Sequence to fold (1054 residues):
Amino acid sequence: MSDFHVYDTTLRDGAQQEGLNLSVADKLAIAAYLDELGVGYIEGGWPGANPKDTEFFRQARTALDLRNAKLAAFGSTRRAGAVAADDPQVRALLDAQTDVVTLVAKSHSRHVTEALRTTPEENLAMIQDTVSFLVGEGRSVFLDAEHFFDGYRADAAYALEVVRTAAAAGAEVIALCDTNGGMLPPQVTDVVGEVIAGTQARLGIHCHNDTGCAVANSLAAVEAGASHVQGTINGYGERTGNADLVTVVSNLQLKQGREVVEPERLRQALHLSHAISEVTNVVPYSRQPYVGASAFAHKAGLHASALKVDPDLYQHTDPSLVGNSMRTLVSDMAGRASIELKGKELGYDLTGQPELLGRVVARVKELEQQGWTFDAADASFELLLREEVTGDKLDYFDAESWRIITESGDRSPSLSEATVKLRAAGKRVVATGEGNGPVNALDHALREALTDAYPELATFELIDFRVRILDAAHGTDATTRVLIETSDGKDSWQTLGVAPNIVHASWTALVDSFSYGLLKQGVLPRT
Amino acid sequence: MSDFHVYDTTLRDGAQQEGLNLSVADKLAIAAYLDELGVGYIEGGWPGANPKDTEFFRQARTALDLRNAKLAAFGSTRRAGAVAADDPQVRALLDAQTDVVTLVAKSHSRHVTEALRTTPEENLAMIQDTVSFLVGEGRSVFLDAEHFFDGYRADAAYALEVVRTAAAAGAEVIALCDTNGGMLPPQVTDVVGEVIAGTQARLGIHCHNDTGCAVANSLAAVEAGASHVQGTINGYGERTGNADLVTVVSNLQLKQGREVVEPERLRQALHLSHAISEVTNVVPYSRQPYVGASAFAHKAGLHASALKVDPDLYQHTDPSLVGNSMRTLVSDMAGRASIELKGKELGYDLTGQPELLGRVVARVKELEQQGWTFDAADASFELLLREEVTGDKLDYFDAESWRIITESGDRSPSLSEATVKLRAAGKRVVATGEGNGPVNALDHALREALTDAYPELATFELIDFRVRILDAAHGTDATTRVLIETSDGKDSWQTLGVAPNIVHASWTALVDSFSYGLLKQGVLPRT
Fold:
């Protein structure tokens, strides 16, 4: 199936996602990653309709060196009553100078009359004229048949006529779009089968996830004979998103044995999915199939002991095929087996050391009793483990005291001010930091106090901060768990603090976060 | 299809999700919400294996008043070589005193020998013995056939024998589990059809989302004849999660016309999905089908104009059926209709007062923009509504300033001290309170300052306190939302505060909580 099309529309339909806004530079960066993943086509945007997209295609000609993918410019059929060759929007598609032009066309007769406000006949003429004009100009033309499934249900004869007209005019692929996303797999199977039988056209599929079935609908269409599948990286898109190409491609390749991208490229899936999320600034979804941080993470103690026997019994596929790996989560449901596995993952071999393992398990259990949950804080767990293995606690500084004052006049903005007193690298330091909250102020003060002794922590940045009140039945007397995520620009790590006082819990998590970050850079305590 | 089972396992399998940790109080709160949604069965946990779950079932007997759902206790078949009646784990299932017991059993012959380390024959005996013992004790027994689909592929004859044995012993439902989550819909269709043909047993389905097909797989099983579907709210669960019951039920009901919950209950889906996410403290996924904040949000300019002509052309279903509403991305969730409805609920008739309604909607929209969510804070909303209706803001006191000092020596317990200055009942008061955290100290100080003017608030007690960091990408610079629940011994109410500073947000929520409590007792401001 070497001619199968993997067609990415992250840069056009994916960019419709709420809160997502891509610059030209972002789009170029994403296109390069998509090419690395091995997709066949990259839809770059709508030149003419959107100045940013026009600019993208202009810059792409020199800035992008695509190895696998071809660029596609997206646009619509000519205006009603016009001539394709004279339509400025159609000319803009030519000016984008791409190998492929993808035209969106109405295929639902009610949309033709009510939204496009023209006749069904004129809509067919618009398709015929625009496709054949662009083919005549040497372009490969794909047609996105908008609202196809709803249209087919309402008026099958007209929907089929749209497909026939486009194919006869020279469109290489007609992609059937479930624009509103309301389909379920059996409907997709039926419609794709009937359209192939009724038109002999080459079909593609374009799904949205409004019923939670975008992936399954895409696979159903392929099973029924479609040989072109559209989607977006990480399922970005309007409303509930488009079909996630990472999941679709992984399923086609690893579950159904269709090699649609080179296996070596699929091994980059996790890396590329996360790299693209850095560009879009959308936090990766940890439960994403195949490449999510949790996708191969095991918590249940029941499984952990058996996982040691044979990981294949508890994994639906080999995670390394998509660049992921199995993780064991340390939790109250886990016993020695999962802690041993976790140690191994972190590079500490605990086999044959039952006494050491027992000590670690006992400490974890005791802390979990108090409300710690290491499953979300690998870095805190590694610090604990390292301490038990080496018998040496990493004290990067010696804290004397800290104090935070938060005050506010009525309705005036509140300010927090923190003062930290500590000894580091042989010197006593007193430092003060301000912030718009107590933890923010404490972070600033601690950073200020340590910066002379540890200039390395200048790159650290707090990127997430979560608070959970445990045992909430006691109201503000409850215990507080604070989870912090810190980044050094390359990697990120999670640390934890638990205490009755939220500020104290934050202090613990901050100190661990700094310690872990320094340890990872090979910096040992300077005393 | 009135006998169709909607079976929720949020409290057991959902709790396996990375980072999710539920207290007994959390579980009771979630169970009450699930009952409101109209699920038929709520799996509460594994009594005996987990002390927290034992305690849940104990408390549930008095604390839960279920109208629709039955509770199910989850556990495993007896140990190899033992007798069910003498197995402590099986006894713990009886002690949970639920109508239903759901037993997990191996159905994959390799798992029997390699993980369970017994013989295939003994595994069948364990199923027969445990099911018939529990049936004899008056329980409805459901069987979760673990790793069924992988097992059926490896050794169909044995997998079928497991189903037949369980059914013959009296199990009412045998739920086929795709434990590793690797299936695609066509496989599920085939296997479910073959098992029904080969056993005539009543089948259920339990799916995980590792291929992104948990919802489609669940629907495929129902289409093939399963009449019991398991899942979790919001798709919580280990790895990529379980089938999202919200999506599965919405699809069954709105797409396939099977009434599996009362339509009026489905209209609560958004509210209940979000209320449960407040308990789990897992940020709601905005792209979640049906109930996600973005699920009916339209950004594309192409659509926005046509949306006005006929929303049905651009929506796959009527969002109000799940309690959601259409948004174009400049506006937000709060519509006039829902605010009018909410007002009615609270005893404020807003019909025929378009100007007043408009003012309330505008204020709610503005506050929601800043991160307020009135969904979980009826008391704060009622204060706002009362203010607009009466034109009179309830100021029980006039705050001058407040200040909180939190300090700690190294490793010594942290203490917070709050000082509040205010005027109430004609007097200026300066009061100080201590606490083990800043909010606790502030609560004590404010109470101390107000007690002379309002002795009525002596009965108020803070019973819950929740913190969510919004816009977490900014780390500790993010906005904080604090939700407080207060009780006067008879009733409880929720109030909200949003501010960059967590202490300020808590102050707002505390002040509203005192105001609302006093108002409910008929106490007006004393000046």
